[in-house]
Amino acid sequence: MPLLEPDPEALRPGTAREPAPDRVTDRSATGTPEPLRAELTALLGADKVLWKISDLVRYASDASPYRFLPRVVLVPEDIDDISAILSYAHGKGREVVFRAAGTSLNGQAQGEDILVDVRRHWTGIEVLDNGARARIQPGTTVLRANTTLARYSRLLGPDPASAIACTVGGVVANNASGMTAGTTRNSYRTLASLTFVLPSGTVVDTADPAADEELVRAEPKLCAGLLALKAEIEADEELTARIRAKYAIKNTNGYRLDAFLDGATPVQILRGLMVGSEGTFGFISETVFDTLPLDRRVTSALLFFPSLTAAAAAVPRFNEAGAIAVEVMDGNTLRASVSVKGVPADWAALPRETAALLVEFRAPDEAGQAAFEEAAAEVMRGLDLVVPAASVTNTFTRDAGTIAGYWKARKAFVTAVGGSRPSGTTLITEDFAVPPDRLADACEALLELQSRHGFDAAVAGHAAHGNLHFLLAFDAALPADVERYDAFMQEFCALVVDRFDGSLKAEHATGRNIAPFLEREWGERATELMWRTKQVIDPEGVLAPRIVLDRDPRAHLRGLKTIPEVEAVADPCIECGFCEPTCPSEDLTTTPRQRIVLRREMMRQADGSPVEAGLLDAYGYDAVDTCAGDSTCKLACPVGIDTGAMMKGFRHRRHTPREERIAALTAKNFRVVEASARLAVAAGDAIGKRGGDRLLTSVTRLARRAVRPDLVPEWLPQLPGSAARELPGTTRVGASAVYYPACVNRIFAGPEAGPGGTPDLSLAEAVVALSERAGKPVWIPGDVAGTCCATIWHSKGYDAGNRVMADRIVEAAWGWTAGGTLPLVVDASSCTLGIAEEVVPYLSEDNRELHRELTVVDSLVWAAGELLPELTVFERTGSAVVHPTCSMEHLGDVEQLRALAEACAEEVTVPDGAGCCAFAGDRGMLHKELTDAATAKEAAEVNSRDYDAYLSANRMCEIGMERATGQPYRSALIELERATRPPGR
Questions:
Q1: What are the strands, taking DSSP E only, across 782-901?
Q2: Reading across the β-sheet that carries 355-363, which strands appear in turn?
Q3: Phi and psi at residue 163, in whole multiples of 5°?
Q4: At how many degrees (to 10) do helices 928-942 and 955-965 cross?
Q5: Contact 315, 357 (CB under 8 A)
Q6: Are 415 and 639 in contact (CB under 8 A)?
Q7: Which of 48, 107, 190, 941 is the most exposed place for a label (fewest CB within 10 A)?
């Protein structure tokens, strides 16, 4: 063990606790048992088999209220791997469940034997026919697909609220729809073709003209069985009519029996059956969608009503007026959404009975938009609206920011309401549909049922399609609470089926919690046909048993997960997974959700149990060390859970008092540390230029093995030389702003050469030159050396050093800016964020007062808003690719970066796969594998073509992206200085 290795015991939960009834048992502490582990490793390779107890636990939870521990987790790379897995399962009598994003709400992404991760290696989109169609890999998120399609003014039909995280494969497998899809724009209606692997291993591409011929040859019994079922269904007129009626409204409960009516051949039938089959019929390896027009002229309103039933009564009128979306939110939902950034605070005091409709019209042009607005105005004249809060306007708007705020509140329904549930309670999300003209009655009946069973529930949904969602919170550790939930479900299913002839699942799919009630909705005849269909396609029951079909009447109560209390910052988490696509370590170790899931399992365990020991042993590297600390998870989470902050807290807990004292000492003597670092970089650069990069890398690697990787950075050949000791000369007299060059730019040099090999100015020289050129000169204080934004200590959890530097920089900035009369312009986005926001909790009370008087401005914002309007662009480059940093996302500065790039280049591209590079100050040198994983997708996209300029706005991120792509990234401000430099200078 290296010296100074942190003690895993430092992260042991320090609370007295009783073992939870659903804890992972000690017999699973060693992970995947033999010979299962050895056989699968031999079959696929060690890197595709996840077997540690920490791996199994982190995959055991998803967005549903259920939790099942897999025996092993596999990460296949291609169809050959999938076929090998299925063949192994057949031969060994094992069961297989496929999991992509894990955003499913009914437990269909969980398995108790072999769980297969089909997200990691299954991403990508190919645009076809100028956007009319798109070939999409199943692990691609809906948001990622639509981002690419937007360039062609197209989009996918399905639009689930979880689009930020849910994958296209999961959307198809569940026939998830969303706000606007209804019954006409969902996957069943908009899929052009798909490729899938049957349980037997047979691969079917429904677009292949010879697909039926090949399938009959490979699977004659299956084809005959499907055609026999088709004939039987079509011969029963009453059943045929019933099937058609069931799909007149949204319905994802059970299998798509209408596939037998819509498909003429076995392949066509299978194409329909695969949609909504929840992984029980095969693996969807590729999809081709017919896309839809992206109408960009949008008008929306958030309208408030005195009651939920009053809001529901208005829905048909907006449907008739042509609204593409009519969403309903009850009072509980509206009040809970105040936890979402940007939602008016006065919603917290809304009367409980209040409800609102979010109504949206979309048109391709001005004439169409005006016509819709006139129709909306006519509907409005007959409505009885209320104004229960000062922020309520009850008016239609075209303002994109306002509309985005409405949708942010609506899409946060599950997470915002779930996040506000009582601590320790499990969240159930139900979803059903009734004929739209029965919506008001259904709302009234649902509210009465919830009240009678003691649930203070929240209701929202796609009112235009008669589709409601509601949430229930209860304690799964209390048998009485579980029975209360069961009693509610029995009455709820009877209500939906008997009174409204509705769908028990409109878009969330059957999963585990509605499987026992399938026959209640469909009847014995149709349900048996579904069982027989499963038998025809998967006769050995290899795929996803007990999902969709389950004869156990209490199956919905099996595997309910308890939610033990964890650290306050993470306790509201409902494990929705929205955070995962933004996480730099997603494809390396763990995600924010998984970090919380692992922590919760520790809390379920008895203190000192073998399972807890195994989790603690892995948690240090998998969760704490490989967290970039960028907190982009906070931006993706609708309730702002900052798992990065929790990891920084854990880093602090692992520090010894001696380490904290040393860190505080470096802060107190940072002037010396800064100078020493600059000298070390200069020496390393000199050695590297003489061919010593390999030597430096070897020496630092040896030191990392001897001491500890988190304390000794690894030398990287991409590291630049040292910055000049002297900063550009400036004067305070007449300065428009105080310019603060970040310590990273005072230690590391900028790029050695610009376009054409001409030497670039340093960033500090560029900022000074640009400001002078625009008539708004800046002043660099003479005593900036020895100061820092404190991020160095903050990111590593060194609280004492953080407090020292936080106070120092604020006191200095207050003096430099004459008590805040001048703005402080900071030239690294992470440092801007640090000074503007992150130092605040660590300041003394007096310095918090000083901080309130400061105006901290990122250099991008300063240049875009103050300088660019006064500058003349003399020479633009042809193309530029831009890397927005995670700090820019936090600060909301990405558009300013784009604006500067567009001033410098004729064509500007922000990669669809752009995300945090995870270099995170020095973390890319401490754990370079983290940056490798974080940048892989973006780097591939960047290197798919050549650009004339590679731009960002943070030196360490530029180094990280240069390392990932091999391209010379530099600050957009350096490029702007070059573009606006007068000819001949």
A1: 824-826, 856-858, 877-882
A2: 297-305, 355-363, 325-330, 458-462, 467-474, 426-433
A3: -55, -30
A4: 70
A5: yes
A6: yes
A7: 941
At residue 882, φ and ψ (nearest 5 deg) are -120, 140
What 8-state DSSP symbol labels residue 935? H
CA 385 to chain centre: 36
- Sequence letter at residue 342: G
Residue 428 pairs in a beta bridge with 472
- Two tokens at 526? 């149709």
**Which residues are within 8 A (CB) of 853 and not within 5 positions of it... i.e. 6 or more apart?**
814, 819, 820
Distance CA 491, CA 643 (A): 39
CA distances from 880 to 26, 905, 907, 971 (A): 55, 6, 6, 12
Q: What is the mean pLDDT of the chain?
A: 93
Task: Please give the helix or strand (H or E) that residue 285 lies within, else none.
Answer: strand 283-290
End-to-end CA distance of the chain: 58
CA R_g for the chain: 29
Give CA–CA dist 521/501, Å, rounded. 8
Beta bridge partners of residue 360, listed in sequence order: 300, 325
Locate 902 and state its tokens: 């567009």
* Nearest CA-CA partner of 266 in 305, 218, 303: 218
Tokens linked to 515: 């499987």
- Long-range residue pairs from 752-760, CB within 8 A, at least 24 positions apart, any chain: 752/720, 752/721, 753/968, 754/970, 754/974, 754/975, 754/978, 755/877, 755/948, 755/949, 755/978, 760/970, 760/974, 760/978
Q: Can you read off the two tokens belonging to residue 768?
A: 């000074």
C-alpha span between 459 and 389 (Å, rounded): 20
Tokens in use for 962? 């240069």
Give the pLDDT score at 713.
67
Mean pLDDT in residue range 206-235: 98
Q: In which region does residue 920 sit, left (phi positive, over 0), alpha (psi from -120 to 50) or beta (all else)?
A: left
Give the residue from 137, 187, 196 showing the smallest Cα distance to 167.
Answer: 137
CB count within 10 Å of CB 625 equals: 22
Instruction: List all residues 6 or more positions away from 531 whose beta carbon is below 8 Å from its beta carbon.
Output: 549
Rounded to an integer, the average pLDDT of 970-979 is 96
Structure-token pair, residue 262: 């819509």
The string of DSSP codes covering 463-485 is GGGTEEEEEEEE-TT-HHHHHHH
Closest by CA position to 859, among listed 724, 948, 769:
769
Give which of 698, 699, 696, 666 is closest to 681, Cα–Cα. Answer: 696
Percent share of the chain, pLDDT over 90: 84
- The first and second tokens of residue 356, run together, are 């609102």
Q: Provide the β-strand partners of residue 302.
A: 358
Identify the pLDDT of residue 3: 47
Please report the DSSP string for 146-160 in residue order.
HHHHHTTTEE-S-B-
Nearest to 716 by CA among 958, 970, 973: 958
CB within 8 A of 188, min separation 6: which ones? Answer: 175, 256, 272, 275, 276
Reading the block at residue 398, the tokens are: 């075209």
Helix H or strand E segment including 41:
helix 36-44
Q: Given the DSSP bridges, would you call strands 283-290 and 203-205 parallel, antiparallel or unpaired?
A: unpaired
Grade residue 759 by pLDDT with cuts at 50, 70 and 90.
Answer: low
Question: What pLDDT, on a 0 to 100 scale, did the predictor assign at position 812?
Answer: 97
114-159, pLDDT tens digit by residue? 999 999 999 999 999 999 999 999 999 999 999 999 999 999 999 9
Quote the CA–CA distance of 560 and 546 in Å, as a whole number: 14
Torsion of CA 797, 801, 804, 806, to 10 degrees: -40
Q: Measured between alpha carbons, how far is residue 86 from residues 9, 76, 89, 97, 197 in Å?
A: 40, 11, 5, 10, 9
Distance CA(278)–CA(262), nearest Å, equals 20
Phi/psi at 467 (nearest 5 deg)?
Answer: -110, 115
Answer whether 459's CB lies under 8 Å from 599's CB.
no
CA angle 222, 227, 228 (to 5 degrees): 95
State both tokens at 282. Answer: 């095969």
